Amino acid sequence: MLIDAYGEEMKVMNYLDVQEEMAKMEGASGVTVRWLISKKDGAKNFFMRRFEIEGWTPYHTHPYEHEVFILSGEGTVVGEGVEHRLSPGVFCWIPADEPHQFKKTGKEKLCILCLIPHTDGR
Amino acid sequence: MLIDAYGEEMKVMNYLDVQEEMAKMEGASGVTVRWLISKKDGAKNFFMRRFEIEGWTPYHTHPYEHEVFILSGEGTVVGEGVEHRLSPGVFCWIPADEPHQFKKTGKEKLCILCLIPHTDGR
Q1: A81-110 pLDDT tens trace
Q2: Is the dihedral of CA A109, A110, A116, A120 positive or negative?
Q3: Cβ of residue B85 closer than 8 Å to a chain A Cβ
Q4: Which residues of B, range 27-46, sit inside 8 Å of A by Cβ?
Q5: Closest CA to B38 of B115, B103, B96
Q6: Would you give the DSSP letter of residue A113?
Q7: Which residues of B touch A86 (CB under 8 A)?
Q8: Quick check: A79 and B36 CB within 8 A?
Q9: B9: pLDDT confidence band, cut at 50, 70 and 90?
Q10: Which of A30, A118, B95, B111 could form a disulfide with B72 if both were Cys (CB 3.0 to 4.6 A apart)?
């Protein structure tokens, strides 16, 4: 990946080289996460995670927003009395304190980028 | 896209339904941008943009960071004495004030998500 380096600071990696973890959300089924850009990289304002969803995330809420981009797979995002279909190229803005749930509906895993502000604390 | 809605607030769209603009960066060649999530959506902390790069962005710097994910195409990101290859699945953390340039190197456009903190002012 690295062609040449002297005095570099930027970080450039393939997501596959980042440790995959089970997502620590109560009520999640078959959800893994890779923290791509977080505090340990020096990020202060917002963090980038990549999720693979074989089942669903819990229907839950928290006091910070999500900015999501669908990379692959098919699914839905459920909100308060609303459900939207998800496919590659779709993005979601989920305001703070808005209930939401992501579910896989196709054969392949639903793979998404999900970014959060630093207020999550990680 | 919308299956059912009452009282919804979340925004769910395909990026293709967002206006594509020429990127307003001096020295850019063949770069378009779609602002997917920004202030007008209510985002306060950080903003999501999707760029299509037929040529290159300028080698430039600014006082805010980038968090980038490569969606399609091949390219490189150039930093201070460093160059990294880019392909789908690669992500980049570019700290504030770090010089950088994105270039297409393959046949297809280099398509990336590039997120910035609200300090950019848009």
Answers
A1: 899 999 999 999 999 999 999 999 999 999
A2: negative
A3: yes
A4: 36-37, 41-46
A5: B115
A6: E
A7: 12
A8: no
A9: confident
A10: B111
Pairing of strands A82-86, A75-79: antiparallel
Residue B82: how many CB atoms within 10 A of its CB? 21
Q: Is B121 on the interface with A (CB under 8 A)?
A: no
ipTM: 0.91
Among B46, B80, B81, the residue with its CB nearest the CB of A46 is B46
The pTM (predicted TM-score) of the whole model is: 0.92
**Domain positions in chain A:** 18-120
Interchain proximity B90–A13, CB inside 8 Å: yes
Instruction: Identify the CATH number of the domain defined by range B17-120.
Output: 2.60.120.10
Q: What is the spatial distance between Cα B2 and Cα B14, in angstroms, rounded to a whole number?
A: 11
CA–CA distances in Å: residue B62 to residues A15, B58, B119: 26, 12, 11
Round to the nearest angstrom and report the end-to-end CA distance of chain A.
Answer: 27
CATH number belonging to domain A18-120: 2.60.120.10
CA distance B15 to chain A (A): 6
